[in-house]
Design brief:
The protein is α+β, with helices and mostly antiparallel strands. It contains eight helices and twelve strands. It is 34% helix and 26% strand.
Length: 276
């Protein structure tokens, strides 16, 4: 049994499905999502695993399936505009973001954002009457809403969440501090008002650069003098330190790493000598 990662939306979450058939990345398949039968894309092929997955890929998608999906997408856009009009008519405090039909059109799902809970029972009844199918309304968070809407980020490029980021990661201010950014909400927040997604996926690079470097406040020894680290400039890859007398030194990271390595080696030699 082979394991595949299937995405039902262009940059949607990846779901694991099993199959006895062999598929390649980029192939379209039919599988059952949480909403019903959907057209999905194989975005990942996992190594052989004993992991058990309840759901299996039903079959490979046909040209007819893809034609049906294209028509469903067109009709869903029309449905979204109608739903927006109905929301205004019902004076509901919600914003309709997206609509989608499952493949066999047995269900029409609307995604919306709102500040709190919304009583949309009357709206659902009217939409069911208009579209003659089962209606589901799904409230999404502010980050998911930004992903669906899309837009341009502070960098001038398309927002990461709508371009390639499939799963939202937990982002904290420690990422901004590690990357030596000013803790200014307007500078480190995205269109959604939350901390920038790029802080998370760039963080590993910064941590790798700072690996084995002393933290600010730690003591280092340079030319038989003791200094306290006062600044780490990750962009210039330099360390600034100050002696008790006020003397300031600026060292490149490479030299600091040599000092650290020599200190460790000297400590090991002293330990060996004491044992012998």
């Amino acid at each position: 049994m082979k394991l595949y990662g299937v995405a039902f939306d262009r940059v949607g979450k990846v779901h694991k499905f099993s199959s006895e058939d062999e598929y390649k990345r980029g192939e379209m398949v039919i599988a059952e999502s949480e909403f019903g039968l959907e057209l999905g894309e194989i975005v990942k092929v996992f190594e052989e695993s004993d992991e058990e997955v309840e759901k299996a890929i039903l079959r490979k998608a046909t040209f007819e399936d893809m034609d049906t999906q294209t028509q469903n997408d067109k009709d869903a856009k029309i449905a979204l505009e109608i739903s927006k009009e109905k929301v205004v008519e019902h004076a509901l405090p919600m914003k309709m973001l997206r609509a989608k039909y499952v493949l066999d059109r047995s269900k029409l799902v609307f995604f919306f954002s709102a500040d709190g809970r919304v009583d949309f029972r009357a709206l659902v009844k009217e939409l069911a009457t208009v579209f003659k199918t089962r209606i589901e309304l799904r409230q999404v968070g502010i980050r998911d809403a930004a992903k669906m809407i899309g837009g341009i980020g502070l960098c001038g490029r398309q927002t990461c969440c709508s371009l390639f980021e499939r799963d939202f990661k937990s982002i904290t201010l420690k990422y901004a501090k590690a990357q030596q950014l000013m803790i200014n909400p307007s500078k480190i927040s995205g269109a959604c008002g939350r901390l920038l997604c790029c802080l998370a996926f760039e963080n590993d690079t910064y941590l790798e650069i700072l690996k084995d470097m002393p933290d600010v406040g730690e003591k280092i020894e340079y030319k038989d003098e003791e200094y306290v680290v006062s600044e780490l400039n990750i962009f210039h890859k330099t360390l600034k330190a100050r002696s008790p007398e006020g003397k300031i030194i600026v060292l490149p990271f490479e030299e600091v790493l040599k000092l650290t390595k020599n200190k460790v080696e000297n400590g090991e030699n002293e330990e060996c000598n004491s044992k012998s």
